[in-house]
């Protein structure tokens, strides 16, 4: 007979926090949400961390380059989806790495004999308005001048050479190679310029520094940047084509990888992680998952995973539990894995961050996951609602929605995540995910700000100013379904209030 566990598995919405005694400085503005992303030793800093504990799912409807840039600006991270060609995924990674930087290597350049028509075509293709003019039309050529939107936007003579309208090098304010970003920004401020070219001793262009990036940094103090001041981005990989995909993603600048698999307790996944560690040593960080048990966690920890994702069947678009009966309530799965993680930490001094993946509907569920021991959470549907997500915006009955679909749908055709071969028509024999829509929620930045305000407020009420303290201080109680229902607005009729969720 099968082994039967009679305790029911639970999910986040079944628990409530008990408030703690609070001292004056327990205020939301004092809460620090920084959290480790990858494995590290006791008392050592992890080589990668997040400034806010939110990552977006490896999903077609969620983690495209626009959302990845917006989330990294807020301090979180996206895993660009792997259910696409290697070339397309690489191009998305490059877009994120190139979309923000201190020193940007210019990819939109022209020669002096190029015309206004060439400028318009280049602008159409790249969206860039500032165009260095170099002797050979490359981003490393001898700089002859700079073209900004003011120079070309209203020029009626489309055949006019750019050399006649550009600001010539003798009038260009530039910075010398080797200058610090702080010094470059000071020059931008001093000379009231929108762009500062950096050139070497021979007069060759090295990079550009933009005013708008300086402004963006001031607006986004938590933004997650690499050592070269580029936005940090992750990439999903699979257990099929990793020997080609991983080197291409690393070359494109992906900061961290994650094996995107519905069930990570498999030899395939162990092989992928071991191969990466053998080929690249510890310089390439790779997370594994998903698991829902201590056994699964220990297996991936033994394989060398740098973080481990927890969750099967709880995703908002997931029907794995209905289709195959596989899965576990998210809170219970997380508690079991966290216990195993903490046991390994106490025994070896090695800390492996845990990511709670899926089943987050409201910000309070993020708070619950953190209090239960997750270091960060991965969300799909929650992010798919924002303008920056790749899904189409749809208007229906006067309301706006964004498309959202699971990776185990025939629409996504992500066979590699589900370890299945397609049928003769190239479809899943049965689907484990559904297609649908989520209510449109505007800009990601506003949504993240509101969610973090709630999470910080919960942490303060529990007497915590950081995630570690939250885990130590939080007192959590299982509540009856009636007690949960009592917590919503009730008795009131015709309520025109937002329920606060
Ligand atoms: P959610 O945030 O929408 O609740 O769940 C997102 C998570 O669901 C993803 O990170 C992934 O682990 C999982 N997922 C993605 N597609 C499917 C599916 O089609 C799925 N079944 O379960």
From TrEMBL:
> Where, by residue number, does NAD(+) bind?
260-262, 311-313
The UniProt annotation places K(+) binding at: 313, 315, 318
Q: Which reaction does it catalyse?
A: IMP + NAD(+) + H2O = XMP + NADH + H(+)
Please state every residue range assigned to the domain named CBS: 166-224
Molecular function GO labels: IMP dehydrogenase activity; metal ion binding
Q: Where is the active site?
A: 318 (thioimidate intermediate), 417 (proton acceptor)
Q: Which UniProt keywords apply?
A: CBS domain, GMP biosynthesis, Metal-binding, NAD, Oxidoreductase, Potassium, Purine biosynthesis
Question: What cofactors does the UniProt entry give for this protein?
Answer: K(+)
Query: Has keyword Chaperone?
Result: no
User: CDD domains attached here?
Assistant: CBS_pair_IMPDH, IMPDH
Gene Ontology biological-process entries: GMP biosynthetic process; GTP biosynthetic process
Name the SMART domains on file: CBS, IMPDH
Q: Which PROSITE patterns match?
A: CBS (PS51371), IMP_DH_GMP_RED (PS00487)
Similarity field:
Belongs to the IMPDH/GMPR family.
Check the record and name the NCBIfam families matching this protein: PRK07107.1
Q: What is this protein called?
A: Inosine 5-monophosphate dehydrogenase
> What species is this protein from?
Candidatus Portnoybacteria bacterium CG_4_10_14_0_2_um_filter_44_20
